[in-house]
Structures are given as C-alpha cells and as structure tokens.
C-alpha cells in the first residue's frame, strides 16, 4: 500500500512561496495606492486635470515592482537587519506619488506656488523627482539584499559542515 498523505513542501520552499505572495500583494497594493489618487488608473473618485506624461506610467510600474520586491525581503527575515531600507522605501513611495500626480490637483503645490507655478515650476521638476525616488527605492532594495546576505555582527562565518555559526570568543 502506498501512503496517500499530502506532500508538505520543505520550509525553504514554503517561505519562498510566501515571499512571492507578499511581494505580489505589495506590488499590487502600491500600484493601486499610487495609481488611483494620481488618476493613472481610471476611477470615479479622482479626475486628472492635465494629461498623463509617458514617463509617469514607467515610474509607476517600476515603483510598484521594486516596492513589492522590497516588501518580500521582510518576510521571515532576521530581526537584526537594519530598518533604514524600509524607511527609505516609504520615502521613495511618497516621492513617486508626488512625481506622477497631477501638478494642478496637488493642493499643497497649488497653495504654495499657485496654478501657474504648479504648471511652470512643479511639473518640470516631476521627472527629476521620479528619478530620485526610483534611485532611493533601488538603493533601499540593494541595501536590504546585501544586508540579508552578510553575516550578522559578532558571528563567525559558518563552517562548510553546515553547522550553525558560533559567536567569537569574547562575545559568549
């Protein structure tokens, strides 16, 4: 007789699927959170008063993908990893919202610069802000991935036998 018990995936494979799911959900969430208020996605709640420039769609898509990958790195990660990349990711997403949004629809910009300033000063700065926010988001992801691949502070590298790393002699 054969055993008909369901096959349970190994923990590493299960965490990979969970990370994939979290990354996908975060990417979709960021896409909706940026796309709806900026009217990149047609919706009945927000109407854009200026046409959408071509680069807004590219910045929106890249922001969503990078944010999803960054969010996936926080699933089942060591707690000793720094939180600075996560904060930089939040700041970069806010920058992306400001970069792809309608310059005339942003009440803070209109209050500070007026409508002509929003169109004449803010609108030309938006592609620069988009590039800067994508650079910060890319840096946050690079920093997060490089930190996850490095050894924790105070630990010696694991020997080739597969054993757990031991603390240095002075740190026991």
Q: With helices defined by DSSP (H or I, 4 residues minimum), what is the helix count?
A: 4
Q: Indicate the percent of residues in helices.
A: 55-70%
Structural class assignment:
mainly alpha
* Domain tally: 1
- How much of the sequence lies in strands comes to under 5%
Distance N terminus to C terminus?
52 Å
The poorly predicted ranges are none
Run of helices and strands: HHHH
Radius of gyration: 22 Å
Largest sheet: none
Transmembrane segments: 16-37, 57-77, 89-115, 121-142
Keywords: Membrane, Plasmid, Transmembrane, Transmembrane helix
Can you characterise this structure?
- It is a single chain.
- The chain is mostly helical and 172 residues long.
- It has one domain (13-148).
- 60% of the residues lie in helices and 0% in strands.
- The protein contains four helices and no strands.
- It has helices at 11-35, 54-72, 84-100, 107-149.
- Helix 3 packs antiparallel against helix 4.
- The mean pLDDT is 83.
């Amino acid at each position: 007789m054969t055993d008909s018990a369901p096959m349970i995936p190994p923990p590493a494979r299960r965490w990979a699927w969970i990370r994939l799911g979290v990354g996908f959900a975060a990417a979709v969430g960021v896409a909706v959170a940026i796309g709806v208020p900026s009217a990149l996605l047609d919706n009945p709640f927000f109407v854009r008063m200026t046409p959408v420039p071509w680069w807004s769609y590219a910045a929106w898509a890249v922001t969503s993908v990078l944010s999803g990958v960054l969010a996936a790195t926080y699933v089942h990660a060591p707690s000793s990893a720094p939180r600075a990349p996560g904060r930089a990711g939040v700041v970069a997403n806010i920058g992306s919202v400001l970069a792809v949004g309608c310059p005339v629809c942003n009440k803070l910009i209109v209050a500070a610069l007026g409508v002509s300033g929003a169109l004449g000063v803010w609108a030309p700065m938006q592609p620069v802000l988009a590039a800067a926010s994508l650079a910060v988001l890319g840096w946050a992801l690079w920093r997060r991935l490089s930190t996850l691949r490095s050894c924790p502070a105070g630990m010696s590298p694991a020997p080739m036998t597969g054993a757990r790393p031991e603390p240095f002699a002075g740190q026991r």
